[in-house]
Amino acid sequence: MTWWQTGPTLAGTILIFFVPGLAILAAAGVRRLNLVCLAAPVSFTVASVLGIVLGIAKLPFNPATYLLTSAAAAVLAFVLRRTLVRRYTHAGAVGRAGVLGANDAIPLASPLSKWWPLVLGAAVTVPALIVTARYVRGFGQPENLSQTFDNVYHLNAIRHIATLQNGSSLTLGNLTESSAGFYPAAMHDLMALVFMFCGSSVMEVVNVGTIVLGAIVWPLSCIFLVTRIVGNQATAVLWAGVLSAGFSAFPYLMVAFGVLYPNHAAIAILPVALGLVIEVLGLARRRPSSFWPPLLALALVGPGLVLAHPSAFVALIAFSAPPVFARLILAWRGYRRGKETGRSMVLWALFTVAFSVGGLIVWIFIRPSLASAPWTPFQSNARALGEIIASAPMGTTAAWVMLVLTIIGIYVIARRPGQYWWVLGMFAVGGALYLIVSSWSLGGFRTFWTGVWYNDSFRLAALLPVVTLPVAVLGAQWLTWRVRALCDYLVLNGRSNPGRLAPVVRPIAARLPAVTGLVASTGLVLALGVAAQGGTLSNVQQRLNTIFATTPNSYLLTTDETALLNAVPEFVPESDLVVANPRTGGSLVYAISNRRTLAPHIFGDRTPDEQYLLDHWDEAAFNDKVCPIVRELNAYWALDFGDFEVVPGDESFIGLRDLPNGSVPGMELVKTVGKTHLYRVTACG
Q1: Strand, coil or helix: what is 680?
Q2: Average pLDDT over residues 339-352
Q3: Crossing angle of the two packed helices 261-280 and 202-212, in degrees rounded to 10
Q4: Which helix (H) or strand (E) holds 672?
Q5: Residue 338 in contact with residue 331, Cβ under 8 Å?
């Protein structure tokens, strides 16, 4: 299968990821940049919340119910908007009341204002092409899978949601009835909807969906965040888009490690949520007509962020702390100068206290157990600081373009601390978390600050681009303005006052066209955008290439094991169940072959009967307890993928270990591919 053949899946992914959000937001009056940037995050909320509601109501979760509910929500949003507009208009309010800040076109100076769609298009297209190319190269083939142990769960979860048509995060758990419980399912819900809508393989859907999240959703989110800070300036939009593809830590790291698809999805929409917080607080460069529109937008985006991965919501709280305190300081200064009332000052003080207390409660209680947080520090404080400044976490090489732009950005903030100090504060929060997790000694202090992320340096490294990008864009803008100012100076004096220029420069300056500054600025964006693709990204690209390669010795599924899984539907009836060891990749028979398995996840609880089969299936010929369970569960089949396990553990799947020697009675060898085998129990009739 070639990537060109994934066109229908790509179209279906765009439809499922964007159209519901676009429809609801457009009906609510959101326009242009905000409409495009907020669409996917809102779709995350619609899918994940709908999955819970339909699960409680015992109704099917599928593309039909998803699209119909989205259409109904869009109609409701339109009716509410028209009602509110009539009420405000009757009260004499302006027609634009109740919109997000910067809801209009990018304000380029005339006569270039007509080119703003091209600016936004370039800002999205450039990173989209870069990220897509890197992912396509890393994935190899559309149906390749990540050779990591987390993938057993994620691929089977998508199949599980589609099979049961139940997308509830409250019951997804570890994919068995015995282990039903909460697991954030927003990403899995959307992927399952695409899977049901397009009929493609689970792997193809996941790979295409991952590309859309990293290549389209992430750049749009970055553009939204940056425009909240500096406004809808053309240079800021271009730099935000181009630089979003220049970090090794995100979007690539969450796919090259883990594989952490939920974190990848959650971090991709995190900048949008952070931008809305900035707008709600009134710190955005172009303020909305009221705090209600961004607050309502945040209410639409927030559930999707939480249900993509709760740790991203905790990160939002951490990154929001500097803006919240900045707003309190702004209110205090306004009160001192007579620009704000005492009531306003008290309200912001109470809000800050409530935010701090609520944030602390969330920080303490929304975290995994220590048993799930085994990662240890691996470097010195000095090295960690260097990695933060150089955008080179996890021991990769320095991202020199990001390093220079970040340093310039810090200089720009230092020149205007009253305006941007909270931007540097967000960067400091992200850097401090990575510093603590990667270099601080083991203990309660480290666990308090980073236990939310399993004390895992990879997860916190992936958050750094969210708060580094605004600083780097400020530096890039300053550099762009300096280049353009120099060009304009040369053009002006080259024609009207050449005596002010050095003799060697005069002939060149006299021939420079008036658009030299614009061309040079654009060239600078493109040049540094290309330069940002070297060095540190080469390392993560190599890791991607390795992680997704299916070879005779690959980590999770070898070529022989993959071939046998593809052959399983020829022998195993749809009603039957396959016994397999998830740690050898055998449980991917669910995702790949569409055949149920006893242990769809490496972890999770099983019923006593299920566990008994996992321990004694190969004893069917002489153990009287086995066959009744086999008949009840239709567990007549087993896969033997050898002894190598992607993650070693206790011997909880010993019921298959005697199959390879061929001496087990009551078993039939049905299919062999290389060193992998499919067995059927004959002792149970």
Answers
A1: strand
A2: 89
A3: 30
A4: strand 667-673
A5: no
DSSP reduced 3-state for 549? coil
Paired tokens of 399: 């991202």
CB 270 within 8 A of CB 316: yes
Q: Which helix (H) or strand (E) holds 205?
A: helix 202-212
Two tokens at 526?
């493109």
pLDDT of residue 342: 85
- Cα distance between residue 539 and residue 138, in whole Å: 12
Q: Give the number of other Cβ atoms within 10 Å of residue 582's Cβ.
A: 29
Span 335-341, average pLDDT: 83
H or E stretch including 678? strand 676-681
Count of other CB atoms within 10 angstroms of residue 415: 10
Count Cβ atoms below 10 Å from residue 293 Cβ, excluding itself: 23
d(CA 432, CA 454): 16
The H or E element spanning position 662 is none
**Residue 633 and residue 67: Cα distance in Å, rounded?**
35
pTM for the full predicted model? 0.93
Q: Give the position of tokens 């109740």.
A: 98
- The average pLDDT across 190-207 equals 97
Residues counted in the chain: 685
Name residue 637's beta-bridge partners. 578, 680
Instruction: Count CA within 13 A, CB hemisphere, residue 319.
Output: 29
What pLDDT score does 535 carry?
A: 76
Cα distance between residue 234 and residue 527, in whole Å: 17
* pLDDT tens-digit map of 86-132: 776 654 444 444 456 555 444 444 444 567 788 889 999 999 999 99
**CB of 600 within 8 A of CB of 160?**
yes
CA angle 338, 342, 347 (to 5 degrees): 130
Cβ(192)–Cβ(162) below 8 Å: yes
The phi and psi torsions of 257 (rounded to 5 degrees) equal: -130, 140
DSSP element (H, E) containing 637: strand 637-640
pLDDT per residue as tens digits for the range 534-580: 878 888 899 999 999 999 999 999 999 999 999 999 999 999 999 99
Look up residue 178 and give its amino acid.
S
pLDDT at 372: 74
